Amino acid sequence: MNQQTKFIWADHLRVAATIAVITVHVSASILPLYKQIPDLTWWIGNLFDSISRFCVPIFVMLSGALLLPKDTALPDFFKKRLSRLIYPFLFWCTVYIVNYFLFHTKNIQTLSANELYTQLVHQIKNQEISYHFWYIYMIIGLYLIIPIMGIWIRKASESALLYILGIWFVGLLLLENLGNGVEIYNFIRYSGYLVLGYYLSKKEFRFKTSRVALILIVTGILVTILGTYLITVYQGKFNPFFYGNTTPNIVLFASGVFLYFKSLKFNPDKKSHISTFINRYSYGIYLVHVLVLTHLKFSWRTIHPLLGIPLTVISCLLISALIIYVINKIPGGKYISG
């Protein structure tokens, strides 16, 4: 079994995570309107958002599962992996900034070159180019440690890996209460997902994996949905605590989704062209989809969210994929599109 066939489940999982992250960003606009909109509308937003919250952890876990086992020389790793992240990121940063100046800056014609430069520097320095780019900053940081982490991971015993994962999980419970005031917070909480993805991809369990995976998924979703509702009712305003990427419910949820896809038997001779297409351009889709959403301008007021959210997700996915596909066909476009 070659490497591509062995990890075909990972390709399908990446597609699911790509769709999920778009769903999160589509449904998110409804949730802060608690008590300002009909209860059913809010619950629909809560449902769609909750069932999609596995997306970011899965992206990181896949990086751990696919990259940590590889013994790649540092120059080759940075050339093949890191450059594929950074060049498209810089390109789309530029596109988002141009879009901001064209559509969100009043009287742009009257701004001096110095004022434009000041706004540009401010956005880059404060990570304000687009709200979803925080993930790129985070994943680039993790990529910098993967070659070093991989040396230890590949030699570590199962007990050592479980010890690290245990320390990480307990640390999440403590750090979640401290929040982003801790400078190393993001690094610690997301680096654990690298190890978790590696461990779950390697481990062959004695029990029926799919059954346990479904229990984890259902538990994670229920805690997320009900926890979000209860804490929101208690505080009288929307509280996204249970949506956090490293809250225990999301860790369990993402682990269940990971194990479930791993347990599925995919026939490599019967690949879905749509799935293959989305998987190939998933990074570019992630980079561009928020820009597409800003121009689609989904509103629950114009179409019922039970229909509007899925339609907007599908529309955004197709438009984003088409944009990346077209750019890839331009000479040199594959280096900057994502």
Automatic annotation (TrEMBL):
Keyword set, alphabetical order: Cell membrane, Membrane, Transmembrane, Transmembrane helix
GO CC annotation: plasma membrane
InterPro entries per UniProt: Acyl_transf_3_dom
TM regions (residue ranges): 12-31, 51-69, 85-103, 134-153, 160-178, 184-200, 212-235, 241-261, 281-300, 306-327
Its membrane topology: Multi-pass membrane protein
Record-annotated Acyltransferase domain positions: 8-324
Main location: membrane
One of the Pfam families matching this protein, by short name: Acyl_transf_3
UniProt-recorded Gene Ontology molecular function terms: O-acetyltransferase activity
Intracellular or extracellular location(s): Cell membrane
GO terms for biological process, alphabetical: enterobacterial common antigen biosynthetic process
Family: Belongs to the acyltransferase 3 family.
PANTHER family referenced in this protein's UniProt entry, alphabetically: O-ACETYLTRANSFERASE WECH (PTHR40074:SF2)
Record protein name field: Membrane protein
Organism this protein belongs to: Arcticibacter svalbardensis MN12-7
